[in-house]
Amino acid sequence: MPYDFLTDLLVVEVSHFGPDALGGRLADMGARVIKVEDPDGGDPVRRAGPWSVGEPTGFSYLHLRWNRGKESVVIDLATEVGKQDFLKLAAKADVVIEGMRAGVMARLGLGYDALKAANPAIVFCSLSGLGETGPYAKLASHGPSFDAYGGLGTPTGDSISRYDGPQAPSIGMYAYGLEAAFAVVSAVHRARRTGEGAAIEVAAADCAAHWLPEALDPLLNPEVSFTRPGFFDADGKMRFWARMENYRCRDGGLIFLMTFTDKSWRALLRVIGRPDLGEIYERTPQTGHEDAEVNAALIPIFATRDRDDWLADFARENVAAMPVNSFADVIADPHFRARDNSYAVPLPDGRTLTLTSTAIHVGGQSFAMPLAPEFGQDDAKVRAEFGLGAD
Fold first, then answer.
1. Integer Cα distance of 66 and 72 in angstroms
2. For 110-128, how does the pLDDT look when each residue is reduced to its tens digit (9 = 90+)?
3. Closest CA to 95 of 178, 35, 38
4. How many Å apart are CA 368 and CA 7, to the nearest integer?
5. CA nearest 92: which of 388, 390, 386?
6. Please, what is the Cα angle at 331 between 326 and 336, to 5 degrees?
7. pLDDT score at 167
């Protein structure tokens, strides 16, 4: 079952691809989300991406994540009958999601002004790649392009999915569903208190640009921004980087050491039996190359034992460290398995599918969701309930 926080929230969604995540987040928290799909096959995310589930032409994992727990109804918004049906849904809804190019619903005569006339307390949220304003508003955009715009990395080589930058690709694409979910719930809270709806706009490119405040904000304020004394060493790296570095163990596993604080650093020195390494940072004068010396000493030390042995000692002695996992390592990691990070759901043919759940854990509740809907799966039920026209 989804969590029970938003069981009194009705959401109507017109969305494809990444913006589906907003309705998906709300559905995870218990909202009823009715996905309005066009008669030409609906949301193409159903069969997007490299993996097909159940059969070679089956659903995508993106669809199973972003559209889980939703209901699907087919409405042709280009027709007058379809518009009237949509307004009937919106009149009873708390939230309408526009997850297409910004302004699509307005061009159909179903923008915020039209919806507000039918339901003054409606919260309308538009998610798009580049937003409704600005010189790029009409550019087509997808996935990693938002990160390219936001400075998080630049496409390299022969594929836009290969990035040269500090962040993995598609930060903007995944962030805007989260940002929008927070905004929508906040707006609904006000609407129920005051009866006043809201028009919200969230662009993935903006989310990428806002992701790293210490990247842009100093550039916006060059006259009052200063490099903190002692923060960088002689090689231009952050001081104490050797205490926050990856180290390879005897079995080939990597550990990310995070002994930035003196307490954790001293705990590490006790575990490895090398208190003399702490003296390197106490010598005077400092040359700025101390971390390179510490790093060179730690590399052979970590190589003497397997990763699990190190991690067991670190947990006991309160040394800040973490395994560096591949995706395959993650699903086998005992911490991942112990925290209910997956759930089982039956496929129509009787086989069982195991899917990742949610990072949100709620005391006294367990999380599981029904499969994402087939195209038009709930059409008859929704039409009867809301008095919509014939299919």
1. 13
2. 999 999 999 999 999 999 9
3. 35
4. 15
5. 386
6. 110
7. 45
In order, the DSSP letters of 127-165 are EESS-SSSTTTTS---THHHHHHHTS-EEETTEEEEEES
What are the phi and psi torsion angles at 155 (to 5°)?
Answer: -60, 140
How far is residue 48's CA from residue 365's CA, in Å, rounded to a whole number? 32
**Residue type (1 letter), 114:** A
Instruction: Report the C-alpha dihedral over residues 27, 30, 32, 33, rounded to 10 degrees.
Output: -10
Strand partners, 37: 74
Domains, the chain: 10-211+342-386 (3.40.50.10540), 241-324 (3.30.1540.10)
Considering just the CA atoms, what is the radius of gyration of the chain in Å?
26
Category of 79 on φ-ψ map: left (φ > 0), alpha (ψ -120 to 50) or beta: beta
User: Which tokens sit at 45?
Assistant: 């995310």
pLDDT of residue 184: 98
Token readout for 293 is: 């010396």
Q: How many CA atoms lie within 13 A of 1 on its CB side?
A: 10
Q: What are the pLDDT digits (tens) for 331-389?
A: 999 999 999 999 999 999 999 999 999 999 999 999 999 999 999 999 999 999 999 98
Distance CA 216, CA 206 (A): 12
pLDDT for the residue 144: 78
**What average pLDDT score do residues 203-224 get?**
94
Structure tokens at 360: 């949100």
Do the beta carbons of residue 27 and residue 69 sit within 8 Å? yes
Burial class (CB in 10 A: 0-12, 13-18, 19+), 108: middle
Render 195-235 in DSSP notation, one character per residue. S--EEEEEEHHHHHHTS-HHHHHHHH-GGG--PPTTSB-TT
- Neighbouring residues of 223: CB distance < 8 A, sequence distance ≥ 6: none
Other C-beta atoms within 10 Å of 312: how many?
Answer: 12
* Ramachandran assignment for 240, one of left (phi > 0), alpha (psi -120 to 50 degrees), beta (any other): left
Q: What is the pLDDT of residues 52-110, one digit of tens each?
A: 999 999 999 999 999 999 999 999 999 999 999 999 999 999 999 999 888 899 999 99
